[in-house]
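Human: I wish I could look at a protein chain and see how it folds. This is the protein in question:
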Amino acid sequence: MTTAAPTAPMAPVVVTTMPAAAASPPDESRTYRDGPGDLRIDPRVIRTLVAHAAQEVDGVTRASVGPIARAIHHPAPPSAPAEQLAIDLSLSISVEYPRPLRTVAETLAAHVAERVEDLLGRKVGDLSVRVDHLQPARERVH
């Protein structure tokens, strides 16, 4: 009779997909200067938008977003340094097995960066992606 040796849990795969980028000032059409006030987007709203954007990517079955340091203000103060005009993000995702993890992470990074700019009017600075779970593919019915 043979017994299998217990296996240690595997560490999650962490893929950093986007280096910090110098952010350009927000596009004037997105600063909402035509209105009678300022727009403040709460970090909880940002996290929800980013999680939804991440789940739009093929192969991503779940996404959660780490804490966001500050709210977004439109228009940005004129004295705001460039790094305050970018959003740094940390995502933990589940990926459908057997998808290539690096490809999913790179696709996710590009898609999230595009959606954040479209929806929030800000660039993504650092974006780290942590794959912490593999989800078995659903059986296909023919």
Q: What stands out?
A: The longest strand covers residues 123-136. The chain has one domain: 13-136. The domain at 13-136 is CATH 3.30.70.1350 (Alpha-Beta Plaits). Residues 39 and 74 are 5 Å apart (CA to CA).
